[in-house]
Amino acid sequence: MQQFLRFKSLYQDRVWGGRVLETKLGRALPAGRPIGESWEIVDRAEAQSVINGGAFDGLTIRAAIEKDGAAIMGPRWDVARAFPILVKWLDCRERLSLQVHPPAAVAPELKGEPKTENWYIADCAPDSSLIVGLKRGVTREQFERAIHDNTLESCVHRFPVKAGDSILVHSGQIHAIDAGNLILEIQQNSDTTYRVYDWGRLGLDGKPRQMHVNESLKSIRWDDFEPSPVRGENKAAVIADAREFRIRRVPLAAGETLRVSAGEQARILSMVSGRVRGVSDGVEIVRGENVVLPFAGAFAFEAQEAALLLITENFS
């Protein structure tokens, strides 16, 4: 299989969303709606990516894996198993809720799914920040009092970010994204989120959004203090290495070629900036696109200008 898989985006309304996917990535968004998320690659019962072009054109990612899972994921892949990674663009016009995803040890009890995720800051306002983890020394008792006192911001670790920064957020880490961030989120295939606090905001229906305080308190890692982001640099590096996946940052100078061998593993290629062209077929991948490089394919991409890619691997 010498073709990569590209997909149609699934746009999601969010109370904190905006129109930056239109202005920064050149997307044609549904008119008049606050688009907070673009689901780029997803294989879930409630949401399916549809392949755009190539031999599997028009098929869902689920149908394609069922049809030729050995070529896409490798010969040992169970075709009944969902594609394990969910890729999203996030347009955070406003701050997101303070939330947590359940660790694997407690997720079954809560009837949820664990979710480890990586945030890559593709663009941001000058004063943008993230919230990940607790301030050093904060206890569960202090945190619970702060919920009732509406002073939770004093308990969490907030730090400034710039374009190119990245942070791996494990299940169990309390977190929120501040306003003004355009983020590429690469995550475990899960959609379980427990909101513990929403800054007094109302939902799109004009009512307070549902909170999950008890579930959050059972999920939060109380020994997780002040994690540090990976700061942006224009050099090759592993920026996330978890049990669920690994992400490599790959800068390319204009004219430089990225080669991917066949028969190793399925990978995801994410274009953060610039554009590349397939050496054999001339097909371009441009800024903002996320594509799957199947197990059976060998690929060579030449940068048409200075480009930055993320390669997600070690998930199959």
Short description:
Its cofactor is Zn(2+). Residues 5-109 form the Phosphomannose isomerase type I catalytic domain. This protein is mainly beta.
What attributes characterize this protein structure?
316 residues; mainly beta; Jelly Rolls; 2 domains; six-stranded antiparallel sheet; five-stranded antiparallel sheet; 22 strands; 13% helix
Write the layout of secondary structure elements.
Layout: E1 10-18, H1 20-25, E2 35-41, E3 43-44, E4 47-48, H2 61-73, E5 85-92, E6 98-100, H3 107-110, E7 117-124, E8 129-134, H4 140-149, E9 156-160, E10 166-169, E11 175-177, E12 181-188, E13 194-197, H5 213-219, E14 237-241, E15 246-252, E16 257-260, E17 267-273, E18 275-278, E19 284-286, E20 290-293, E21 299-303, E22 307-313
Antiparallel strand pairs: 1-2, 2-5, 3-4, 5-12, 6-13, 7-10, 7-12, 8-9, 8-11, 14-15, 15-22, 16-21, 17-20, 17-22, 18-19, 18-21
Mind explaining what this structure looks like?
There is one protein chain. The chain has 316 residues and is mainly beta. The protein folds into two domains: 210 residues, Jelly Rolls (Sandwich); 77 residues, Jelly Rolls (Sandwich). Helix content is 13%, strand content 36%. It contains five helices and 22 strands. Strands 1-2-5-12-7-10 form a six-stranded antiparallel β-sheet, with no helix packed on it. Strand 3 and strand 4 form a beta hairpin. It is globular. The model has no long low-confidence stretch (mean pLDDT 96).
